[in-house]
Amino acid sequence: MGYSDTYARWQADPEAFWLKAAEAVDWVKAPEQALYDRGDHIYEWFCDAQVNTCYNAVDRHVEAGRGDQVAIIYDSPITGRKSKTTYAELQTQVAAVAGGLAERGVTKGDRVIIYMPMVTEALVAMLAVTRIGAIHSVVFGGFAANELAVRIDDCAPKAIIAGSCGIEPGRVVDYKPLLDGAIDLAAHKPDFCVIFQREEKPADLIEGRDVDWQVMQNTAAPAPCVPVRGDDPAYILYTSGTTGAPKGVVRPTAGHIVALQWTMKNIYNVDPGDVFWAASDVGWVVGHSYICYGPLFAGCTTIVFEGKPVGTPDASTFWRVIAEHNVKSFFTAPTAIRAVKREDPKGELAAAHDLSNLCALFLAGERADPDTIEWAQKLLDKPVLDHWWQTETGYSIAANPLGMEEMPVKIGSPSVAMPGYDVQILGEDGHPVADGELGAIAVKLPLPPGTLPTLWNAPERFKTSYLNAFPGYYETGDAGMKDADGYLYIMARTDDVINVAGHRLSTGAMEEVLAGHPDVAECAVIGVSDSLKGQMPIGFLCLNSGTNRDAADIVAEEVALMREKIGPVAAFKQAVVVNRLPKTRSGKILRGTMVKIADSEDFKMPATIDDPAILDEIREALQTLGYAKT
Ligand code: COA
Ligand code: AMP
Fold this sequence. Notes:
Elements (H helix, E strand, L loop, with lengths): L2 H10 L1 H8 L13 E5 L2 E4 L4 E2 L1 H14 L3 E7 L4 E6 H17 L7 E5 L4 H12 L3 E4 L6 H11 L3 E5 L1 E4 L2 E4 H11 L6 E5 L13 E3 H7 L8 E2 L3 E7 L7 E6 H14 L8 E4 L6 H13 L3 E5 L11 H8 L2 E6 L1 H10 L16 E4 L6 H11 L3 E3 L11 E2 L16 E2 L5 E4 L12 E6 L14 H9 L5 E10 L5 E6 L3 E4 L2 E4 H9 L4 E11 L3 E10 L7 H15 L8 E4 L13 H8 L15 H11 L6
Parallel strand pairs: 4-17, 6-7, 6-8, 8-11, 11-12, 16-17, 16-18, 18-19, 19-20, 30-31
Antiparallel strand pairs: 1-2, 3-13, 4-5, 9-10, 14-15, 21-22, 23-24, 24-25, 25-26, 27-28, 29-30
Helix pairs in contact: 1-2, 3-4, 3-5, 4-5, 4-8, 6-7, 9-10, 12-13
Bound molecules: coenzyme A (COA) and adenosine monophosphate (AMP).
């Protein structure tokens, strides 16, 4: 069935559509009802079902005779190591780790934080937690101790599973001191930590608190899969919002399995046994959905890649991995392709590799610029398909559904709304605007299965962040437009979120860090356009009166502070000292205008600006950093 017919089938009866999709899941108790309307625009799916995530990702494939098939390929150009884990081996490992957690008191509904680099064991840890009905929260390795501490206090984990270190080009990132520092900072203390020791840098364990992963795995009795209710959370994943405190996106168990399994064939066109590769990190939603769960629910082989698009060892790495492991569908962020293109503009390194098994390249995580898409199309001679989604949804809102029907590609558009999503472009009055007009992108409620039903510990914030702006709709936080064929164009965020190298970051959180400097009276952070990373953060600092220290020293201290408080992932390297910030008469900082000046774009002088002359100072300050060229 093609796209239009499938979308129409969903529109005609959404509940029947998802109950049909639910037939692909192995239930302990199958759902009889799909949607639950809790009132006040709150919805849940499949609440009467009983199911286990890990069983659907691992055990059922072994029981169906796929035990000898490779489930996970670990390919680490950064360490020079590779390994393969079959579904049967994965089942044994996961059951043992789950048993070790259970023996130490982790039980259904408990939270477990996972702070791991890109190794097979990161997936084993996630699956082990869901096996016993507990809830994981994976924290990206590029975050600092402080960010980890915030998450520890918010989800109050019974245990933390961490690697001893991660490896970045040219340096080993010691996770253990970060973990210990975070536990010191946090008010909540986990009962125990499980440390996966890596050869590159084993860590000293704390007697009585830390357990060695290998010892635990070798000694634990295997744990069975524990059924949970369909609406019980499978995981919490923190993501950036407007303020400093990250939002704990809750992923409901049953909807997650139903929806991801559905996407694997319909969007990515992969079947059981195919190799699917998402070059992302388990710390991000792409890693949850398409390194771990989606491919495993579908009985595919997934790849855990520990490396970078360039420099490990060079820009041929992606093509080598695709050829060597027979990848059928490949998914990465546009920034990664831009990095490859910059190193190998003619794509000569790809020519040495047999990419004939590759069917398509999928891009997401940030706006895919036309140059990058065209370059990849020419190089690969395969469909290059942009698709748009968010941590909150867990899978695409708009995509080109290759497995259903390859739609014509319109460069600059992630194509069309997927079944489950009634996407509308709304004006400030909350009414849909005409085709081709810009507005806030919103999705008519209810959202489909697997999307967030709430925020962890923050039901009110869920409403204020997503539901209150446009009653009856979910506010995506993105602005854009729709054309007459229903193709969407995602243009910008409507909030203070920026996207740096495919990583979602909050300028609000960065401003909180800058404001903590004793010499800084006021500050602002904006995201300026960057040809490689999409956006880069820049800080503006107004110093306390009487401060006569060297501005360069204060900037350097702020850069170091950001790395210490948020982490290297913030990629915060540039700041300038200015006398004042441009504001409206009511005191709101005109960040949007500052971005336009930085990007050398035309802008309309805001009618409410307090003092237009400040903009000249901002322009001059930006010019010292190489921005605002005209
Ligand atoms: N653990 C510790 N540090 C990490 C890290 C991790 N898991 N991931 C990134 N960092 C560090 C980097 O080492 C870098 O540190 P530095 O300031 O000392 O150089 C810093 O965080 C910024 O990283 P990044 O923004 O990724 O820049 P980069 O120069 O290292 O790499 C790209 C640039 C484009 C190659 C890289 O960002 C990339 O591959 N991006 C794709 C992102 C992606 O897949 N996103 C997921 C959405 S699909
Ligand atoms: P994250 O939650 O980290 O996945 O980030 C989600 C945000 O990234 C979205 O709200 C968009 O702002 C941006 N984004 C993701 N995919 C795309 C895309 N294909 N095109 C444009 N922006 C995107």
